[in-house]
Design goal:
Shape: globular
Number of domains: 2
Strand order of the largest sheet: 6-7-8-9-10-5-11
Oligomer: single chain
Number of helices: 7
CATH class of the largest domain: Alpha Beta
CATH superfamily of the largest domain: Leucyl/phenylalanyl-tRNA-protein transferase, C-terminal domain
Strand content: 15-25%
Distance between the termini: 49 Å
């Protein structure tokens, strides 16, 4: 099969035409087309995302199956629950939304990962997602200790769907704290699923599970056009939706 090459105006091909499980790149759909805000929003609305290495063209993917985290199934393991309770009681420990988006995505790109010699978050991708953030589409959830950014994640919010992209931790469990805060936020705003794109054992341990591309696309069709959160902001009271007292952080820490 010849991979479709997109120009700036070319539409995406049907997702069913993506390379199948017997290929060298299962889920690969097309190449090219650039990373404009409109192109990226259109892609995510259809369950398509860019993923490529430095020196490659933009590559677009729609894997089958797709890894999703139903927020109702999030596994708050006993150890993480204790970590969260201690974090929320400790002065100087904060969760923030959207206060340092570029720092978060830069940290995701530059934090070494076991078994990964490089990163797919190339400079062109960083600039593109910063533009998405400026357009109110991409968001960060951040873990801070004594004024230091120690962990976090970033992703997209479209309607009542959240698309997780990457996370990092410079302190133990710092990214898990951010993910738990995102899950609590989603529960508070009737967002049922977080897209995790591809399977990892870590995500599976937290409740994520694979679903077929067909089922995923049906969920997108039903949710991305719905009214989303009026504002992406941290609210300490959301922790109660995970069964955790909010502690002293009762006010929003978002700008």
């Amino acid at each position: 099969m010849k991979l479709p090459w997109l120009d700036e105006l070319a539409p995406f091909p049907p997702s069913a035409s993506a390379l199948g499980p017997g290929s060298d790149a299962p889920g690969l759909l097309a190449a090219g087309g650039g990373l404009s805000v409109d192109r990226l929003v259109n892609a995510y609305r259809r369950g398509i995302f860019p993923w490529y290495a430095d020196g490659q063209p933009v590559l677009w993917w729609t894997p089958d199956p797709r890894m999703l985290l139903p927020v109702a199934d999030f596994r708050l393991h006993r150890s993480l629950r204790k970590t969260l309770q201690r974090f929320l009681r400790t002065p100087g420990c904060e969760v923030r939304f959207d206060s340092a988006f570029r720092r978060v995505i830069d940290a995701c790109a530059n934090t070494p990962r076991l078994g990964q010699p490089g990163t797919w978050i190339v400079p062109e991708m960083v600039d593109a997602y910063v533009r998405l953030h400026e357009a109110g589409v991409a968001h960060s959830v951040e873990t801070w200790i004594d004024g230091e950014l120690v962990g976090g994640l970033y992703g997209l919010g479209l309607g009542r769907m959240v698309f997780g992209e990457s996370m990092f931790a410079h302190r133990t469990d710092a990214s898990k704290i951010a993910l738990a805060a995102l899950v609590a936020f989603c529960r508070a705003h009737q967002i049922e699923q977080i897209d995790c794109q591809q399977h990892t054992g870590h995500l599976a341990s937290l409740g994520a599970a694979p679903v077929s591309r067909t089922r995923f696309e049906a969920h997108l069709a039903a949710t991305v056009a719905l009214p989303g959160p009026a504002r992406w902001a941290y609210d300490a009271e959301d922790w109660t939706l995970l069964g955790i007292p909010p502690g002293p952080q009762v006010a929003s820490l978002s700008p």
